[in-house]
Design the sequence.
């Protein structure tokens, strides 16, 4: 009876060790080698929301979820720490670690281009990188298309200068009823500008002018301009009088 | 035929019982469509170390209400998987076996949870067979005990874990192995083989999840004391005489206890820092502070900045979490379970408050936010109830009066204590010891949960305490019933307790008294 029991004991002690020999984790591309314009596949939510990102890059015309729009350094209040602070503390310093003002220029947005569905993910050095002195952060963007941020933000194009291109509907602000959506989905109107004039009539006149500039052509008879949020600045929306459309009305795109 | 004879009738019966246990368990999981438990996030940290990810990328996003049966092969980078720290659990063994099975049956390159469910059922069936073999008393009574335990394990509250990404199945099966081993260990006077089986089963159970480490509370005293004391009695000497006769008799038990203790310490030490942080954060900010009349003072007593009290009741992931504040650093070192307990000890009445909340949590029995069906099934945002007699009986009795759970544990332990009294048959004593063991484990597990995490995910974390309570009740009852069972089923073979040498293997003959 002792021998089988001994075998059982050995198995019980060794099997977890054997089982623990899972797939080795790949080191990928270190955070400090991230460069602006790099596109990275993050095919699971866990990876997308992970505090660091050392996954390899792919050409931006291949499926990917994140794109580096800037490379920066961690918030100065944290750089002196020898051990990497916790996730929540790092995330609390996201705004100060990545230059938000660089997002719109990266997208190629002009004054009356309004982006939607773009989410910023700040990727900090891994624990090991931090201990080795790494303090660079990769500022990455994801583009959530469709109706919510609960879907795969996979894209097959670069976000750099996208607002100047015909495929920009994916990142433009439209609305479906009162709900904000991206313009690649079905929507009732597209945001074409903001006006500061006082009075409804003046606002409408300004909006009509902006809509015309935005589309680069005379206003369509089957479309209407609406003014929303009458507090300054008021929003100008342009969309079909009846029904839904898909895509952008922005003119002058490549 | 000779081979069959060599196997022995008792072993064959036990194997049959184990097989029936496994098959019926699998049937309750598979007949009319597979049911399991949806992954609420914790499952990923177990699976990702085998290069697995749930479903197809984002397909499961916003579908946490559904069981994702297929886990795909996936390459993880850097710290994307579990913050880069390996999550160790004995459940990794069935997971690895199931991955091989998934490949073998051509079900994909990753893991099919249906294969894992079958493997988990086989492990549970093996434990049930060993338990049936180790139990004392007539066959009918042993069968009844095993059947009652099946009813508990097969309940919707527990069975769903078998087809899930959680590490609970190893903890549940480990518990059944430990019960069988304790039974055998006691009946065989702490023989070497039974001692090793107890060590092996305890190691398997307590490395399933960190919370199962409370098994040490019952296992260590058994390992340290049983062999020596029982040998003393078997040799016809008084306990004190045998104790005086030398320390060598304690060596096997002490060595085994040391092994179990070391494994437990290594396992706890290997807990990913993030998991430890979550637990300690929850214990302070979700349990201690929201139920305190002076949260600032509690934080000061823990050595933390009182200004963090503003984050009382906020989860770790909340936008207003304390973890984002500079004063937060050092929480993991300062809010240890020991120090948290010391804070409560300053006002012992707070334990009563903790007890009340914990019993309320136990009374709810089953988390109502982890669902059972795959996405393809209609009504997937529901809990299945194929076998839920225990849940229904439990909630009917205990939801209105949670304090009755406390009474149930006390009564079960009292039944065990009476069975252990001098002069009782060794089989009945073993039954009583198991009831006492399980009752003690309920208490240890309950307070471990309340003091290390408290309100956060309370009902799910108290699942083991509930399972232990059910098992304690079964054995408390059984230790009472054994004499009647013997009289009813095998009166001619009844005889008084034997006193004999140190090694005794359970057999049908032994089982009859």
Sequence:
């Amino acid at each position: 009876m002792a021998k089988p029991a001994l075998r059982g004991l050995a198995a019980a002690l060794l099997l977890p060790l054997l089982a623990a020999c899972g797939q080795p984790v790949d080191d990928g591309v270190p955070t400090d080698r991230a460069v602006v314009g790099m596109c990275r596949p993050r095919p699971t939510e866990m990876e997308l929301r992970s505090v660091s990102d050392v996954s390899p890059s792919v050409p931006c015309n291949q499926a990917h979820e994140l794109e580096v729009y800037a490379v920066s350094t961690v918030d100065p209040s944290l750089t002196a720490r020898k051990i990497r602070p916790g996730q929540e503390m790092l995330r609390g310093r996201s705004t100060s670690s990545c230059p938000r003002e660089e997002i719109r220029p990266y997208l190629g947005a002009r004054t009356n281009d309004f982006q939607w569905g773009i989410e910023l993910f700040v990727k900090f050095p891994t624990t090991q990188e931090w201990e080795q002195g790494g303090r660079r952060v990769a500022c990455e963007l994801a583009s959530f298309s469709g109706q919510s941020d609960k879907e795969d933000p996979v894209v097959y194009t670069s976000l750099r200068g996208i607002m100047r291109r015909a495929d920009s509907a994916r990142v433009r602000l439209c609305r479906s009823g009162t709900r904000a959506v991206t313009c690649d989905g079905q929507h009732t109107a597209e945001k074409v500008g903001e006006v500061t004039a006082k009075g409804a009539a003046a606002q409408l006149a300004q909006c009509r002018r902006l809509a015309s500039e935005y589309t680069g052509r005379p206003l369509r008879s089957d479309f209407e301009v609406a003014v929303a949020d009458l507090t300054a600045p008021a929003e100008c929306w342009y969309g079909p009088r009846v029904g839904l459309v898909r895509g952008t009305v922005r003119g002058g795109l490549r | 035929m000779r081979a069959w004879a060599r196997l022995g009738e008792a072993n064959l019966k036990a194997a049959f019982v184990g097989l029936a246990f496994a098959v019926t368990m699998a049937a309750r999981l598979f007949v009319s469509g597979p049911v399991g438990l949806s992954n609420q996030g914790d499952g990923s940290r177990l699976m990702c170390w085998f290069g697995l990810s749930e479903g197809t990328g984002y397909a499961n996003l916003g579908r946490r209400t559904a069981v994702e049966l297929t886990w795909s092969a996936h390459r993880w980078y850097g710290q994307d998987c579990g913050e880069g720290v390996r999550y160790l659990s004995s459940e990794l063994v069935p997971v690895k076996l199931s991955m091989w099975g998934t490949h073998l049956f051509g079900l994909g390159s990753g893991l099919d949870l249906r294969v894992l469910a079958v493997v988990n059922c086989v492990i549970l069936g093996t434990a049930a067979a060993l338990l049936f073999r180790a139990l004392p008393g007539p066959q009918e009574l042993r069968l009844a005990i095993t059947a009652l335990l099946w009813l508990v394990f097969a309940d919707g509250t527990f069975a769903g874990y078998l087809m899930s990404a959680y590490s609970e199945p190893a903890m549940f099966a480990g518990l059944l192995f430990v019960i069988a081993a304790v039974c055998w260990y006691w009946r065989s006077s702490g023989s070497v083989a039974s001692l090793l089986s107890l060590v092996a089963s305890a190691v398997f159970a307590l490395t399933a999840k960190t919370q199962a480490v409370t098994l040490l509370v019952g296992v260590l005293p058994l390992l340290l004391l049983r062999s020596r004391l029982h040998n003393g009695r078997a040799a016809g000497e008084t306990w004190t005489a045998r104790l005086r006769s030398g320390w060598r008799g304690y060596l096997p038990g002490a060595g085994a206890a040391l092994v179990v203790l070391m494994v437990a310490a290594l396992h706890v030490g290997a807990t990913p820092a993030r998991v430890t942080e979550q637990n300690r954060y929850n214990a302070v900010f979700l349990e201690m502070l929201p139920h305190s009349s002076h949260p600032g003072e509690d934080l000061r007593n823990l050595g933390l900045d009182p200004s963090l009290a503003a984050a009382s009741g906020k989860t770790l992931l909340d936008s207003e979490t304390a973890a984002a504040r500079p004063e937060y650093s050092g929480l993991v070192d300062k809010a240890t379970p020991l120090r948290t307990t010391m804070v409560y000890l300053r006002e012992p009445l707070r334990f009563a408050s903790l007890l009340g909340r914990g019993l309320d949590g136990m009374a709810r029995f089953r988390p109502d936010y982890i669902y059972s069906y795959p996405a393809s099934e209609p009504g997937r945002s529901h809990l299945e109830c194929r076998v839920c007699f225990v849940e229904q009986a439990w909630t009917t009795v205990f939801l209105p009066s949670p304090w009755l759970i406390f009474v149930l544990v006390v009564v079960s332990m009292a039944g065990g204590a009476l069975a252990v009294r001098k002069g009782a048959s060794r089989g009945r004593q073993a039954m009583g010891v198991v009831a006492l063991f399980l009752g003690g484990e309920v208490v240890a597990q309950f307070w471990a949960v309340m003091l290390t995490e408290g309100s956060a995910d309370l009902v799910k974390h108290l699942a083991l305490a509930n399972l232990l309570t059910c098992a304690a009740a079964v054995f408390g009852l059984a230790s009472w019933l054994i004499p009647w069972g013997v009289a009813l089923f095998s009166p001619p073979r009844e005889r008084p307790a034997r006193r004999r040498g140190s090694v005794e293997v359970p057999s049908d003959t032994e089982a009859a008294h």
Summary: Confidence is low (pLDDT under 50) at residues 497-513 of chain B. Residues 426-452 of chain B form the longest helix (27 residues). Chain B touches chain A through 54 residues (CB under 8 Å).
